[in-house]
């Protein structure tokens, strides 16, 4: 029987494999959520580098948030990643939810990024 860690890794790789088929050269907006914080990166897979990153631990956000583990924090991180990505010249991305369900904090981050100007 596969361990929980292996199952999560397999699910994340399945999602990324599907994204590569539809990406058409667009960078990927990767999301990771932990029990206390949420993180987002815009990654250019062809060059293998991160174009923009944001998290609920950023100094500008941390002071204004009650906690890094709620929907309000996720939406704020989404807006911040959209701002930083547009500054880096990225308007269109593919959304990589990883092994997480598109629900709750992950969905709030996506909505915040769309509100901030990213399209996916």
TrEMBL record:
UniProt keywords (A-Z) are: Ribonucleoprotein, Ribosomal protein, RNA-binding, rRNA-binding
- The UniProt record lists the keyword Ribosomal protein: yes
Does RNA-binding count among this protein's keywords? yes
Query: Do you know which Gene3D superfamilies this protein is assigned to?
Result: 3.30.420.100
Name a GO CC annotation attached to this entry. Answer: ribosome
Q: Which NCBIfam families match?
A: L18_bact (TIGR00060)
Query: Which HAMAP family does this one have?
Result: Ribosomal_uL18_B (MF_01337_B)
Q: What does this protein do?
A: This is one of the proteins that bind and probably mediate the attachment of the 5S RNA into the large ribosomal subunit, where it forms part of the central protuberance.
Q: What is this protein called?
A: Large ribosomal subunit protein uL18
